[in-house]
UniProtKB/TrEMBL annotation:
Organism name: Kineococcus endophyticus
Membrane topology (UniProt): Multi-pass membrane protein
Transmembrane feature ranges: 26-47, 53-73, 93-114, 134-152, 164-185, 205-233, 254-274, 294-320, 346-367, 373-397, 418-439, 445-463
Subcellular location(s) of the protein: Membrane
Lineage: Bacteria, Bacillati, Actinomycetota, Actinomycetes, Kineosporiales
Record's keyword terms, sorted: Amino-acid transport, Membrane, Transmembrane, Transmembrane helix, Transport
The UniProt record lists the keyword Iron-sulfur: no
Tagged with keyword Membrane: yes
Primary localization class, coarse: membrane
Record-given protein name: Amino acid permease
Length: 475
């Protein structure tokens, strides 16, 4: 098959990554990247924007888009199970410049996230240790991220699984406790609220369809992190078996966790209370529901869960950043040193530089909040939609190539059963979200900066390599 991709050739002197991740590791890595403080604290405001029913509709739409994306991603990951994930797919299928741009977009996305997660963790620790400066806690948590990512890959997977399990347990308990309260089984003598809270003073959709569309934009970001499965696929023992299992399990859990949690919040937390601009642990819908159900120290419990969630996301983010830098080195876009691994198969330099990027992001949030940090956060927000679009487009093009070469996609270990609907649907959803963001004052700047940064990446790649100097790495 002339158009079937072949493995990227490593730079001289580089070693291979050690395999060892299993299906449960991939699932927990994805969950670790997705379930964060946004669900535990900020989701209430999203419900207020769209209304209780509107938020449920928005999350349902987002879940369908994420599901179709995962089918595209799973098909590519099984064909090309290499560390670097969608950077590899973009490089081989859509061209080196697109691969280069995709990698830097996603790398900066997680760099900005790491900085914000370290800051948030430090601020939360002051709840119990007010005399300890925030920067010291940031340093401690940065050391934890570094230690976990320098551990052997299976130990890394086990650690991330443990961290992710804490917040998954919290979400499951929240849904169960909330479901009981909805039907009237709680400490309160009040009648069962059922779904009466869905009817707001302004009707079922207080913000109209526009409010639902704005909420959909937030939902896309809420589901971001699922694509980490592709980056970790290259370090699994049996990608053809492990990746499909991880794709299916991850989507089922995400749909249950997110939509279940949103339904509970919308049904139990007063609509006016959800509109509070004060996003803190005390105003978290989780605290409201747990406190009403008699769970002691609800705010402290949620604070611990949020710190765990932040660390889990940070661990996944640093892992993704380091593998992207290594992948860029293998394509010649970074020095070969970034691709070298130690005797345990860890790309140490890539991990260290990625963490340094996260610390720069952290510092810029204090000393250059109106300039450097705004750019980082803007690129991070735009990167999610851009990367999803690249994954969908790569799967669409690759499937057409396979058919042109006479290969039946049904013979693949995993293939999307919804082609061509899946990639086209994801591409349309991404395009609509970008256009809609231009009409939202809070997101317009992020989109513009993201587009400018993307164009700059293409220009830099062209200037460095020339329009024809870097051919696609394929047979």
């Amino acid at each position: 098959m002339a158009d079937t991709p072949v493995p990227l050739q490593a730079q001289p002197g580089t070693a291979e990554l050690r395999r060892g991740l299993r299906s449960r590791h991939l699932v927990m890595i994805a969950l670790g990247g997705v379930i964060g403080s946004g669900l535990f604290i900020s989701s209430g405001y999203t419900i207020y924007q769209a209304g209780p029913l509107g938020a449920v509709i928005a999350y349902a739409i987002g879940a369908v888009v994420a599901w179709q994306l995962m089918t595209c991603l799973g098909e590519l990951a099984v064909q090309m199970p290499e560390s670097g994930g969608f950077h590899v797919y973009a490089h081989r299928i859509l061209g080196p410049a697109t691969g280069f741009t995709t990698a830097w977009l996603y790398w900066l996305c997680w760099v900005a996230a790491i900085g914000s997660e370290l800051t948030a963790s430090g601020l939360l620790m002051q709840r119990w240790f007010p005399a300890v400066p925030v920067w010291l806690w940031c340093a401690v948590f940065a050391a934890v991220l570094l230690a976990v990512n320098l551990a052997p890959v299976r130990l890394y997977g086990d650690t991330e699984s443990l961290l992710a399990a804490v917040k998954v347990t919290a979400v499951v308990v929240f849904i169960v406790v909330g479901a009981l309260a909805i039907v009237g089984i709680s400490r309160s003598d009040a009648p069962a609220p059922l779904l009466s809270n869905f009817v707001t003073p302004d009707g079922l959709l207080p913000a109209g369809i526009g409010g639902v569309l704005v909420a959909v934009l937030a939902v896309f970001y809420a589901f971001s992190g699922t694509e980490l499965i592709a980056i970790a696929a290259g370090e699994t023992d049996d990608p053809a078996r492990v990746v499909p299992q991880a794709v299916r399990t991850t989507m089922v859990r995400l749909v249950v966790f997110f939509i279940g949690a949103i339904v509970v919040m919308a049904a139990l937390v007063p609509y006016a209370q959800l509109g509070s601009a004060d996003e803190s642990v005390e105003t978290s819908p989780f605290v409201t529901v747990f406190a009403a159900s008699g769970i002691p120290y609800a705010a402290d419990v949620i604070a611990v869960v949020i710190i765990t969630a932040l660390m889990s996301a940070g661990v996944s983010g640093l892992y993704a950043c380091s593998r992207l830098l290594r992948s860029l080195a293998l394509t010649g876009d970074l020095p070969p040193a970034f691709a070298r691994t130690d005797r345990r198969g860890i790309p140490v330099l890539a991990v260290a530089v990625s963490l340094a990027g996260g610390l720069v992001s952290l510092v810029s949030s204090y000393v250059a909040a109106g300039t450097v940090y705004v750019v980082l956060v803007s690129v991070a927000g735009f990167a999610v939609v851009a990367v999803w679009a690249v994954i969908a487009l790569a799967q669409f093009v690759q499937r057409r190539r396979l058919r042109a070469a006479g290969t039946d996609p049904a013979t693949l270990p995993y293939h999307s059963r919804f082609f061509p609907f899946a990639p086209v649907f994801v591409l349309v959803a991404c395009a609509v979200s970008v256009v809609a963001s231009l009409f939202d004052g809070s997101q317009r700047l992020a989109t513009v900066i993201g587009v400018v940064f993307t164009a700059a990446c293409y220009l830099v790649h062209r200037l460095r390599r020339g329009s024809g100097a870097s051919g696609r790495v394929a047979a």
